[in-house]
Design brief:
alpha/beta; binds S-adenosylmethionine; seven-stranded mixed β-sheet; 2 domains; 12 helices
């Protein structure tokens, strides 16, 4: 009996895994199958499916792009925190502030999850340039819940403490209710947030001076990593920079040069 349920669980993992790769490019972590099934509830409610197997059957027949974003919330890893790999974020802002006069630097933060990385950039930009700011930051993610959370900028007490100093928390966030903190309106106004799948091409062509893709590509299948990388490169303006996460390797070519100029993880698009 136990053997049979193991087979059922294995077969379901295979189906979830195929779906995750097709819709998001990501490998599904087998240890998180149960969590994925719980997180599929909003998609089940949308389609009126009573069981995960019924939902899978429907999703295997075709998925609208709206539904992809709900399913993606369940199948991807959204782990993030404030000022993750902080030196690289500081370099992004230092470099953006050096761009020629009369040009507003544009940063595209892909796989932005619940927004901590983009708010960290917004905080650095404000601290260095004052409230005038002057850097455009676009945060995108495939997930519906992730993008709604990034837009709202609301974090639990546990999340707000992860990577953020008390001084920055008090300067840039306001208490909401007993347990949460919200990015102040001024900081939220510095970000634009959009839902976007990296497998669908760039959000805008040749528009960005710097594109961040940190901890997004490493869990993708080889084929999808190349597709996503092409989207990132097409989003960069010639001579612009791509930043990957610490220790992440990307396939060679695609018009990118590993140029040590800005430090580890940075690649420059050929001008
Ligand atoms: C591990 S988080 C990384 C968050 C942040 N970049 C950081 O480094 O802290 C990865 C995020 O990538 C998003 N993601 C995964 N596949 C994607 C795709 N095909 N298109 C856009 N975003 C994707 C996930 O939804 C998740 O929120």
């Amino acid at each position: 009996m136990q053997g049979l349920s193991k087979t059922v669980a294995g077969a379901r993992f295979e189906r979830l895994s195929r779906l995750a790769e097709r819709l998001t490019g990501q490998h599904l972590d087998s240890r998180k199958t149960f969590l994925a099934e719980v997180r599929l509830k909003p998609a089940m409610a949308m389609l009126g499916s009573e069981t995960v197997d019924d939902l899978l059957e429907r999703l295997e027949q075709g998925v609208s792009s709206n539904l992809v974003s709900y399913v993606a919330d369940a199948l991807t890893n959204g782990e993030t925190w404030f000022f993750r790999e902080r030196q690289a974020l500081q370099t992004v802002i230092d470099h953006a502030l050096k761009t020629e006069a009369g040009h507003t630097p544009r940063i595209w933060c892909t796989g932005a999850a619940s927004g901590q990385e983009s708010y960290s950039l917004a905080i650095l930009s404000e601290e260095m340039r004052g409230e005038a700011g002057g850097i455009e930051i676009l945060a995108t993610d495939i997930g519906h819940r992730a993008t709604r959370r990034a837009e709202a900028g609301i974090y639990t007490h546990f999340e707000i403490q992860k990577g953020l100093s008390a001084a920055r928390m008090l300067a840039h966030f306001e208490r909401v209710g007993d347990r949460n903190w919200q990015a102040c309106e001024r900081l939220r106004d510095r970000l634009a947030v959009r839902q976007h799948n990296l497998l669908d091409g760039p959000v805008r062509k040749e528009a960005f001076d710097i594109v961040l893709a940190r901890h997004v590509l490493s869990d993708m299948s080889d084929r999808c990593r190349v597709t996503a990388l092409q989207s990132l490169v097409r989003g960069l303006r010639p001579g612009g920079w791509l930043l990957t996460g610490a220790g992440e390797a990307i396939p060679g070519g695609h018009g990118l040069i590993r140029d040590g100029g800005l430090g580890p993880g940075f690649y420059r698009k050929q001008a």
